[in-house]
Amino acid sequence: MIPPDANAAFVAAMEDVLEVYTRPHDPDFPVVCLDETSKQLIAETRVPIPVKPGHPARHDYEYERNGTANLFMMFAPLEGFRHVKVTDRHTALDYA
Questions:
Q1: What parts of the chain have a pLDDT lower than 50?
Q2: SS3 string of 4-65?
Q3: Is 1 within 8 Å of 11 (Cβ atoms)?
């Protein structure tokens, strides 16, 4: 989604990025994407009520927080390569 205050320079830069994804496969110049996210780890505090005819499974909204995890992913779509690293922290060393 383009931010509402985006200008022509932003759009031109985004078009340059999108052009990279349309390049043909070249093993000498692989397209490598990097992404990161943080996820909250939770556990259920009550056993879900199982499915019954005419009724879906029911889950209580209450949960127990079990910290967070950081996920770093490298992805080379044209190479068929993906690597995910999960860490407890989000430091410069973890990112590197």
A1: none
A2: CCCCHHHHHHHHHHHHHCCCCCCCCCCCCEEEEEEEEEEEECCCCECCECCECCECCCCEEE
A3: no
Gap between the Cα atoms of 67 and 94, Å rounded: 17
As given in the structure block, the two tokens for residue 2 are 């383009």
pLDDT score, position 2: 65
Question: HSE of 37 in the Cβ direction (CA atoms, 13 Å)?
Answer: 6
Q: Which residues pair with 16 in a beta bridge?
A: none
- For the chain, what's the residue count? 96
Neighbours of 76 (CB within 10 A): 13
Tell me, what amino acid is at 82? R
Instruction: Determine contact, residues 44/61, Cβ cutoff 8 Å.
Output: no
